Amino acid sequence: MIAYIDENKATFGVEPICRLLPIAPSTYYEVRSRPPCARRLRDTELKAHISRVHAANFGVYGARKLWRQLNREGVVVARCTVQRLMRELGLRGAVRGKTRRTTTCDETAARPSDLVQRDFSATRPNQLWVADLT
Fold first, then answer.
1. What span, in angstroms and rounded, lies between the C-alpha atoms of 58 and 100?
2. For the chain, what percent of residues have pLDDT higher than 90?
3. How far from 35 is each of 81, 97, 104, CA to CA, in Å?
4. Sign of the C-alpha dihedral computed for residues 106, 112, 116 and 121 taken in this order
5. Helix/strand/coil percentages in the chain, nearest 5
């Protein structure tokens, strides 16, 4: 809600928006004046380290190798934190091998006829049998 108010306060003002939303204007101003939490400060510091190490290794390091490199450099951080921050930064490691390609159908090929007219409901037992032979 705070982000929404920040985006629209120039057009409508804070108090009219807060009247429509379930938030008091004093709460909005308190949140805006609050200093950032320790996690957010640490994340900004770690994002700089992660970007630096990822770029120094030609963008091929994934979360695990990047985590190990940071710990070798003396930056103590959890692997899950590195994964989360890499996701936020949009960084990915190189993937080895070929990418998997699934079967693509030929749009011009003839399709088998629909013998049950796509009606898979049976009114009595053994009236309709459906099998998948894939």
1. 24
2. 63
3. 22, 46, 54
4. negative
5. 50, 0, 50
Name, in order, each residue with C-beta under 8 angstroms of 116's C-beta and a sequence gap of 6 or more: 128, 130
CA 72, CA 9: separation in Å to the nearest integer? 46
Longest dimension (CA), the chain: 72
Residue carrying structure tokens 């630096």 = 52
User: Letter for the amino acid at 9?
Assistant: K
Alpha-carbon gap, residue 50 to 71, rounded angstroms: 11
Task: Report pLDDT digits (tens) over 86-111.
Answer: 999 999 999 888 877 788 888 888 88
pTM of the model: 0.61
